[in-house]
Amino acid sequence: MKFKQFLKSKGAIASIFMGIFYAVAMLGIFLPGYTAIPGNMDELKIAIVNEDKGESGNQIAGQLGESLPFKTIETDLTNKQALKDLEHNELALVIHIPENFSADAQSGKGTNIDFTVNEASSTMVSSSMSSVVTQINNELSANFSQQTAQGILMNFNLPKEQAAEMAEQIENSYTGNYVIMNDVPTGMHNSMLPMFLTMACYVGAMIAGMQLVGSFKASRGKASKTKLFFYVQLTALIIAILSTIASLTVAFLIADVDTSVLLPVAGQQILLYMAAFNVCAIPIFILGEGGMILNIPILLMQTLANGATIPRDMMYAPYEWFSYITPMYHSVQSYLAIMFGSISPAPYLWGLAAVGAGAMLINIIIVWVFHKPLPVDAPAEQPASLKKADEVMA
């Protein structure tokens, strides 16, 4: 065989196509998606809660409202409601000016503002909010130090002890409290664990989808298509349980996750596998092995649309739309709530279950409509001599 003939073989042509297709699909999906960072950071929502009735609090709240680069800044929430919204990741940052802020500033006491972030959220949110808070604190600290210096260092020839006391008062005139809600253990392996668990499960389910649907088609005529479809789902469930045991053994040995959440995480991992399997099986039931060509961009889209790195508020419309109808977003957000958060994962689990049930229903319709029933092979009849032997043995 010559090299030209080899290049014309089915395997070579398929490999060349997939090499080009994967490169174009990956770059064509990832690069536009990541332009949302930091371009769409202004889409994040924050709250400024000003409980101070004095001039200083109102002045700072007004300055922050004008200078911060966010389109939506809530100013009519109570601190309790704002923190609740932050807990549910409906806000990215809560700035709280306490009620005694102006009085403390006027009396020369140290003043403080609380900046609260939720670490059980997209990594981009927690990191960018940390930078925003640092910038705000630096500006406010310099401003207050300057005002305090002008107010108390008008006189010279002060006693040494009094001068030292006033210098300390200048230095401590303002403090910005960086408050963390739902502290995630240090290490990127912890913060990215929800995404890693989800990705590992999804890729395994995608490969199983190709193999099991192939077995379904190869077994046609050996059993009814209804029975074969049930066999496919049952086998997928067995794989889901076994892969969950394997993946969680590795995850809980390496990551800093409380073992008390082991059972809820295991239950979700099994649910995720079944949902992912049925989503990935749809193109394969329709197109056969060629369905993997569609499954690859679907996987790549979810890598951005799962909310682990970019929150839904910052996503472009196609990615945001994808986050609702595919499993990964619901899974990642549920894992964040279970492992590190303080809210119920129920809404995300219901979303994951709905995606899985919808995908299974689509597969049932595809099998019913496109896969025509074949006559089931009857078992070969035993020869008369063997029948007689069986009767004697009985």
UniProtKB/TrEMBL annotation:
It holds the Pfam family ABC2_membrane_3. Coiled coil: none annotated. It is a multi-pass membrane protein. It comes from the Bacteria. The keyword Transmembrane helix applies. It is found in: Membrane. Signal peptide: none annotated. InterPro entries: ABC2_TM, T7SS_ABC-Transporter. Keywords: Membrane, Transmembrane, Transmembrane helix. GO terms for molecular function: ABC-type transporter activity. Residues 16-365 form the ABC-2 type transporter transmembrane domain. Its main location: membrane. The keyword Transmembrane helix applies. PANTHER family: TRANSPORT PERMEASE PROTEIN (PTHR43077:SF10), TRANSPORT PERMEASE YVFS-RELATED (PTHR43077). This is Predicted membrane protein. It comes from Solibacillus silvestris (strain StLB046) (Bacillus silvestris).
